[in-house]
């Protein structure tokens, strides 16, 4: 089965298109789609209505779809920046990792960080983005010494704020 092919979009850039089988669990919702040519993330829609209470209220929101990623690929659920900026609503476990062997419904764990206002999730609303990426696996080998780098073991703010 062919899982990918090269495609030259309207913007003139060539890209690889991955064919991903999708199962509709909610036939009334549109399929995920990319808002603009060249976008990395496609929109996921809520297949249910719920209210996220203020101050950390969260909900596991169904999307009404399941996918079959080709082996060697993974998908990542990412927040929508507009929901975070305008309403304080984001994905709690970002990024949400979907391995190629998973065949269940895609769900999005949303949290309302607004301290006062509840947030109503409406059916059909864009609640997150799905990014599909090729992945590699590592073979770990035990060693006593690691190669030297300029950064070394500096982390968590070691490069400053400016």
What would a concise description of this structure say?
With 162 residues, the chain is mainly β.
Written description of the protein model:
With 162 residues, the chain is mainly beta. It has a single domain (20-134), classed as Distorted Sandwich (Deoxyuridine 5'-Triphosphate Nucleotidohydrolase, Chain A). It has one helix at residues 81-87, and strands spanning 4-8, 14-18, 22-24, 33-34, 41-45, 50-52, 57-67, 73-78, 89-91, 96-98, 105-112, 119-121, 126-134. The strands form 4 sheets. Strands 4-5-13-8-10 form a 5-stranded antiparallel sheet, with no helix packed on it. It has a 4-stranded antiparallel sheet with strand order 3-7-11-9. The protein has a two-stranded antiparallel sheet with strand order 1-2. A hairpin with a 6-residue loop joins strand 4 (33-34) and strand 5. It is globular, with a radius of gyration of 19 Å. The chain starts with a strand and ends in a 28-residue tail after the last strand. The model has no long low-confidence stretch (mean pLDDT 91).
| Integer average pLDDT | 91
Using the coordinates above, name the CATH class: Mainly Beta
Please state the overall shape, judged from the principal axes of the Cα atoms: globular
Distance between the termini: 50 Å
The CATH architecture designation is: Distorted Sandwich
CATH fold-level label: Deoxyuridine 5'-Triphosphate Nucleotidohydrolase, Chain A
Q: Count the E strands.
A: 13
Strand content range: 35-45%
How do the strands line up in the largest sheet?
4-5-13-8-10
Domain count: the total is 1
* Tally of helical runs: 1
């Amino acid at each position: 089965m062919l899982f990918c092919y090269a495609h030259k979009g309207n913007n003139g850039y060539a890209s690889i298109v991955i064919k991903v089988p999708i199962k509709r669990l909610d036939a009334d919702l549109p399929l995920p789609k990319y808002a603009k040519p060249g976008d990395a993330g496609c929109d996921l829609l809520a297949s249910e209505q719920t209210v996220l209470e203020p101050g950390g209220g969260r909900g596991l929101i169904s999307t009404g779809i399941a996918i079959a990623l080709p082996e060697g690929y993974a998908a990542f659920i990412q927040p929508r920046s507009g929901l975070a900026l305008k309403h304080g609503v984001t994905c709690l476990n970002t990024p949400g990792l979907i391995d190629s062997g998973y065949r269940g419904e895609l769900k999005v764990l949303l949290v309302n960080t607004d301290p006062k206002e509840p947030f109503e999730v409406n059916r059909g609303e864009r609640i997150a983005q799905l990014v599909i990426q090729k992945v590699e696996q590592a073979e770990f080998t035990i060693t006593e010494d690691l190669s030297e780098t300029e950064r070394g073991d500096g982390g968590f703010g070691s490069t400053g704020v400016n």
